[in-house]
Amino acid sequence: VFHLRDIRWERPRFLSKTFLAFATFNVIIYTLLAAEVLATNVADTTAEKKVRVKR
Q: What domain of life (predicted)?
């Protein structure tokens, strides 16, 4: 049997890096979505409420 010393046979970590990037991207996107939903539902920024204030 032929042996090579000092050579690593570890699998590349490409999939774990890809998953980390995917998860980070989704966290950012869903955070922005939640901020938009909160801004439109919690804050008084709807067009109907702005029209009522102007009248």
A: Eukaryota
